[in-house]
């Protein structure tokens, strides 16, 4: 079975409705089981946090299911520390979605 979870930014969320993705992001706020995060391109989305979310750092990569273009249901999170160059992360995400690279990364150009 093939389990792809491409990295996406806010602009690309709508292309992955109902699918599992990876979202490198900056935590803006957490309120109970909801978080507002800023994705690599500067767009904000709301995340429904799982009970075992274990979010400790300012920057995390959230793996989850895209529910709407601006909401994600989290499955797990990887803590990435407190200092990430999000412009470089966004550039990498955009490169992964080019027609040439899409076949290697399982992304949608």
TrEMBL record:
Alphabetical UniProt keywords: Nucleus
Cellular location(s): Nucleus
Superkingdom: Eukaryota
GO terms of biological process kind: base-excision repair; DNA replication; double-strand break repair via homologous recombination; mismatch repair; nucleotide-excision repair
Single annotated GO MF: damaged DNA binding
Residue ranges the record marks as coiled coil: none
InterPro entries tied to this protein: NA-bd_OB-fold, Rfa2
GO cellular component labels: DNA replication factor A complex; site of double-strand break
PANTHER family according to UniProt: REPLICATION PROTEIN A 14 KDA SUBUNIT, REPLICATION PROTEIN A3
Similarity annotation: Belongs to the replication factor A protein 3 family.
Protein name according to UniProt: Replication factor A protein 3
Organism listed in the record: Serendipita indica (strain DSM 11827) (Root endophyte fungus)
């Amino acid at each position: 079975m093939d389990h792809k979870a491409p990295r996406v930014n806010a602009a690309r969320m709508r292309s992955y409705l109902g699918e599992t993705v990876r979202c490198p992001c900056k935590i803006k706020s957490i309120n109970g089981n909801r978080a507002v995060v800023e994705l690599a391109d500067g767009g904000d989305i709301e995340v429904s946090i799982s009970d075992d979310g274990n979010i400790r750092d300012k920057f995390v990569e959230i793996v989850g299911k895209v529910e709407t273009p601006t909401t994600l249901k989290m499955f797990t999170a990887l803590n990435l520390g407190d200092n990430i160059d999000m412009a470089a992360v966004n550039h990498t995400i955009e490169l992964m979605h080019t027609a040439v690279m899409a076949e290697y990364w399982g992304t949608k150009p």
